[in-house]
Each structure stands twice: as C-alpha cells, then as structure tokens.
Amino acid sequence: MLPFATAYHRRLTWRYFALFIAIGMTGGLLGPALPHLADSVGASMSQIAILFTARAVGNMSGAFVTGLLLDRFDGHKVLFAMGAIMVTGLAITPFSPLLILLAGLFGILGFAEVALNSGGNTLLVWLHRDDAGPNISALHFCFSFGNMLTPLVMVAALSLTGQFHWAFWVVGAFALLTLLPLLRFASPHKTPTLDSDTPPATTPKHSDAVLLVLFMLIFALYVGMEITFAGWVTSYGVLVGLAAKDAAILATLFWLTLSAGRLLAIPLLRVISPWWVLCGCTALGLVTAWALHALWVPLSIGALLFGLAASAFFPTLYALSNQVMEMRGRTTGAIFTAAGSGALVVPSLTGPLLDWLGAGAFPLLLAGLVILMSAGLGLLALRLRALGQATHAEAVKPLPRGEH
C-alpha cells in the first residue's frame, strides 16, 4: 500500500496518477502513428523522422518553462494551462497537410507533454515530501502504462473507424478528463503552509550547483539509454538476423518489464535505500549488455532483462534527488531539460555508430552508457559525503569568544 498522510493526499495523488496515464499515452502516440502521419503529408520515413527531433526540442523547452512557472504561480493552474495546449495539439495534429507544420505541432506537443511531466513530478514531491519515493515510482509506472495503452488505442481506432485521427482525439479527451478535477484541489506548495497537514521535510537538504549538475548528467545518460534501446532495438534485431515480425516485438518486451519493474519498486523503496536500487539497476544493465554482446542470451530475453534494469532507475534517482536537494520548480525543470537533451543526442548518434561499426556496436554502446551512469553515481556519492562532512564541521564549530 502507498503511504497517504490524509484523505486529501490520497485523492490528489490518484488524480496525478490518472493524469500521468494520459501523459504516457500522448508520448506513446508518435511511434504507432508515424506511418499514417507520413502518408498524410506525403513524406518518406527518413523525412518524417524529423518529428522525433521536433518533439525532443519541445521537451527541453517545456521542462524549463514549467519549472519557472511553478515557483511563481498556482501549480494546478499551470498544469491545466499546459494540458490545454496538449489537448488542443492532439485535436488538430491529424489535420496537418504539411510536414513542416506537423513538426511544429509535435514540438508543441513535446513542450506540453514534458511540461505536465515535470510539473506533476514536482507537485507530487511537494505533496509527499520525504515520503514521496514510492509514490514517484507509482507515478512513473502510470506513465509507462499509458505508453503501453497507446498502440491498443491506435489499433481500436483503425479497426472501428479506419482513421488514425481518432487515436489522437481519444487520448486528448482522456487527458482533458484527468485535468479538470485538479482545479477543485488546492495545489501543493514548495514549503508547507501554516494550516497544512503536510509534515515538513526531516532530511537535510543541500543547495549545491555541483550536486545538481551531477544529477542532470546522470538523468541525461539514463534517458538517452532508455530511448536508444526502445527506439533502435527493433532495427538491431533485424541487423542480427531476426525476422521483421519477431524484431518488432522487442520494444514491447522492453516496455513490459520496464513497467513491471517500476511497480515492483513501489514496495522496495519503502524498505531499502535508493542507493541499493540504483546499484542493482546498473549491475543488471551492465550484465545484460555484455550478455547481448557475447550472445549468451536470446535477444528477446535481453530485451526483458534490460527493461527490468532500466525500470526503477529514473523514479529512484528522482526520489534520491528529493531526499538530498531542495526541489524547487526550476530544479525539476533543469533535471527534465537535461533528460530531454539525452533523448535528443544519444539516439541520434546511434544510427551513424551502427553504420560505422556494425550491429555489434549496439550492446557496447549500452554498456558504455551504463558504465558512465555508474561513474556518475560514484561521483554523486562522493559529493554528498563531502557536503555532509562540511555540514557536520559547520555544526560542531565552536562559537567565537563572547558569544553564547
């Protein structure tokens, strides 16, 4: 069971969960809709790939802007404004007659999608404070669950209407239904109000630029790794000799265990340290990448194992950042902007790398990313130790003579 301090916490948290299913469904639309969008604007598959870049650029700007807004305005009104942009974009995107217009609309959708994502994460942390860890894992499970639902919505839309447009409209309608109830709730605040039932944070928080930069780098590496695996594993499967229909299911296997692992992390984070979860994820990721390189396991098993390795990393790292840093809106915005940069850069480099070094470079790239993430975690632990020692030294420093 998830920890809820009051009925207000329980009701609002479940509404955030519903919203994140809608956000995940929006993020998952591009893949299933890609061939239909290409047909609608008369673009080749290489040309339509610009939509991924447009969405990634929108992702980065959306996180940054929302972080600034949350520190100044009512959080739920900010979420509703960003949600209105997303719903409008979902309504009009299928009508786009030109590739350049379609790219602009996906940039807007990417902006609104990550604005809601970063904003929802921030408000959940402000709502639960030091008890946020399991709830963050549940929130990200809902996002992954939404991703898994989208292909089913697309199949249903095509079967019932023959038009892919309805998938966008159904997701938009569901998103609107999850946004409207939020306006009835008081928004969580960065610091508890005097009449709030939310207990103040009990863990010392650091305000340190180096610490934030380390978190940003690790988030960028992780998201780049996740998007690279999900986006390129099908192509990798074809390159190593799998039939196209068998390779197509690899991404589904990855998302399946990624979602299951996030569900498993909910009780885990209540009983063990986030550091153990992060170390377990990186260890399993490195072993799986090497097993794929050495051909020790079938690719289907490798996809399942790598999904499990990736599953709990993002929500656990985010929960850890909440434990050790003051999570202002701009802090979350910086983290999600870094994550967007990883999603933009790393997958873009994968194609040229495969062309240059061949299919065998794919598992080695994954292993390299996991090693860099592990190194980042090591530097993070060292920085936290140094900050803890500095805080302790400051606390025990004797008062100057004559002061009491």
What's the total number of strands? 0
CATH superfamily of the largest domain: MFS general substrate transporter like domains
Provide the residue-averaged pLDDT: 84
CATH architecture name of the largest domain: Up-down Bundle
Low-pLDDT stretches are none
Question: What is the fold named in CATH at topology level of the largest domain?
Answer: Growth Hormone, Chain: A
Features:
404 residues, mainly alpha, Growth Hormone, Chain: A, 2 domains, 0% strand, globular
In words, what does this structure look like?
This protein is mainly α and 404 residues long. It has 2 domains: 1-189, Growth Hormone, Chain: A (Up-down Bundle); 206-392, MFS general substrate transporter like domains (Growth Hormone, Chain: A, Up-down Bundle). Helix content is 79%, strand content 0%. It has 16 helices and no strands. It has helices at residues 7-27, 30-41, 45-48, 50-70, 75-92, 99-128, 132-161, 165-179, 209-239, 244-247, 250-271, 274-293, 299-311, 313-324, 329-357, 361-396. Helix 12 (274-293) packs antiparallel against helix 13. The chain is globular and about 55 Å long. The termini are far apart. 48% of the residues are buried. The model has no long low-confidence stretch (mean pLDDT 84).
